[in-house]
Amino acid sequence: MRGILPSLETSANIWLQDNRIHFAGDGEAHTKKIEDGILSGKTRTLYVPLATEPKDKTILSRFLAKVSLEAMAIRLAKLEDWQDDFFSDAQITALRRFARRGDKPGFWPFHERQLYHEDHEHNDGQEWYQVLHEWDFLRTDQGEMYCVICIFGREFAFNLGGPDCSGYAKWLDENGHVSPLYPRS
User: Residue 21: pLDDT band by 50, 70, 90 thresholds?
Assistant: First the structure.
C-alpha cells in the first residue's frame, strides 16, 4: 500500500512485517530520500489512506446506475436501430434521471456482497491474473433485469427496471448464492 509523507512531499510503498513498518521508494534514490527524511527527523508524519464504507450510499447508487446504463448501451449497440427503444423506455428514462440528478427517487437500492478479496488472483489453468472489474446481466423469472457488476471482488446488483433489489436476493436464495458472473458448470 502507499503512504504519504507530507513534509517530504512524496509517497512511499509501506508494509507491516514482524510488527515493524517498512518503507520503500520507487527506486534507490527515492528510497534514500525517504530514509534520510525519517532518520534526520525532517518527517514525523505518515498518512495511510484506508478504504472505508461510505456513510451515504447515494453517490455509489448513482455511479452504479450510470455504469448499468453504459453496460446496457454497450450490449445493445450490437443490434440495429436499438437507440429509439432504449431512449424511449420509461424505466430507462427514470434510471437515466436518477443517474444524472439523484432525485425521483432519492435513492435506488442495490445489492452488495464480497465475492473475493480485492487482491485475489484467478487461475485459468495456464496463468495467474487479477480481475479488476467485470459485469453481466441477469434476467430473473419475475422479468427483472439486473446489471451485476464486480469491482475488485465486490459484487453489486442493480435493478434497471426500478428501485427494488429484493428480487436479486430471492434469486440468490433459489440459486445457492452463486454469482451470475460465476455460474456453476
Answer: confident
Helix, strand, coil shares, percent, the chain, to 5: 35, 25, 40
- Tell me how far apart the alpha carbons of residues 65 and 99 are, in angstroms, rounded to a whole number: 5
Is 84 found in the same domain as 36?
A: no
Domain membership of residue 46 (yes or no) is no
Query: How many domains are contained in the chain?
Result: 2
Strands, E assignment, the chain:
2-5, 10-17, 20-24, 111-114, 122-123, 128-129, 133-139, 145-151, 154-159
Pairwise CA distance, residues 34 & 37, whole Å: 5
Expressed as residue numbers, the domain containing 25 is: 2-40
